[in-house]
Amino acid sequence: RPQLLIDTDPGVDDALAILMAHADADIAGLSIAAGNVGLAHTVRNACTLVDLLGSATPVFAGCATPLVRAPAEDAAFVHGEDGFGDIGFPAPKAVVADEPAAQALLRLTRERPGELTLVALAPLTNLALALRLDPTLPQRVARLVVMGGAVTGHGNTGNIPAEFNIGFDPEAAHVVFEAFPSFDLVDWEATLRHAFDEETFDAWLRAGDHRADFYGRIAGTARAFNRKHDRRGIIVADALAMAVAIDPTIVIRSEKRTVAVELDGRLTRGATVVDWTGRLGGLANARIVLEVDQVRFSAMVRRALGLAA
Ligand code: BDR
Ligand code: CA
C-alpha cells in the first residue's frame, strides 16, 4: 500500500481525499494548514475524521496564517463556517499531537527516507516552512503531489487566474515550487474535467456505509454553493489529487512543464504561470495532470465511501 503524509485543510473535498487514503493507503500523519477555514476548525475537523475512521493517525497543527500577507479570504462560503457544512458535530476525542506540523513533516521523512508520498491538499504554508527549516526535505520524499493552480488561468478566487490553495499563500507555493525538482500538479481546471455526475454520486452515498452518510452530510453547503454558481457535478479537487497520489498510473495524459507562481500582479497575484512553449528552457518542475482514468477514480471514491469498487 502507498505510504502517505497528507497536508490538508479539511474542508469537504479534503475529507473525501482522506477517506480515500484510509481505504487504499497508509497515512503516516495529517499535517494541518489554515485555508478553507481557520486553523482551529481545520484541526478539529481532522480530529473528527480520525474519530470517524477509528484510526490512530497523528494530527499535527500547522501555521494559522499565510507566510507573508495575512489575513487572506477563506472559503467558508463554500465549505461552511466550520469547514464541515455546519452540522454541529460533537467535540472530537482524537487529540492533537504536541509537535508543529512543519517539524513533524521533517521528522517523519527523516525516520522513513524515500518512503513517503507527500500529498498537499491545502495552501502550502506548512511545506514552505518545513523547507526553510530544512531544504533537503525533497530528497527524502518518494513523491510530492500538489492540488493547486489553474494552468490556463481559469482560477476559482477573486483574483481571476488564481486557484484557492495557491492564491491563499502565493509565497509558500513559490517556495515549494522552487524547492522540489519534480512534483505532480493537479490543478483546478483538471478538477472541473473530472467532476462526478450528481445522480450517480447520490446513488453511491445511499449505498455506502457510515462514511458515505458522513460525507453526504458535510457536503451539503458546498453542493448548494456549486449549484448556485452553475458549477456542474460533484467537484472534488482534493479527491482527484489523492487518486493521483495513491496510484500514479491512473494518469492518462500529462505534460512536464515549468510552473512558477506570480507573487505581485495587480490582477494576477497567486496565478500559476506555466511555460507551455518551453521558452525558459531548463528542467521542468511539474508534471501537470491533464486527464485521469475516471473509471478507476470512481472505483477509489466508491471504496472510500464503503461500497464495493
Ligand atoms: C482547493 O481549495 C480548497 O477549497 C479545496 O479544499 C481544494 O484544496 C480547490 O481550489
Ligand atoms: Ca483542501
Automatic annotation (TrEMBL):
Key word Hydrolase present: yes
SUPFAM superfamilies in the record: Nucleoside hydrolase
Protein name per Swiss-Prot or TrEMBL: Inosine-uridine nucleoside N-ribohydrolase
Family matches, as InterPro entries: Inosine/uridine_hydrolase_dom, IUN_hydrolase, Ribo_hydro-like
GO terms of molecular function: hydrolase activity, hydrolyzing N-glycosyl compounds
PANTHER family: SI:CH211-201H21.5, SI:CH211-201H21.5-RELATED
One Pfam family per UniProt: IU_nuc_hydro
Positions of the Inosine/uridine-preferring nucleoside hydrolase domain: 4-298
Keywords from the UniProt entry: Hydrolase
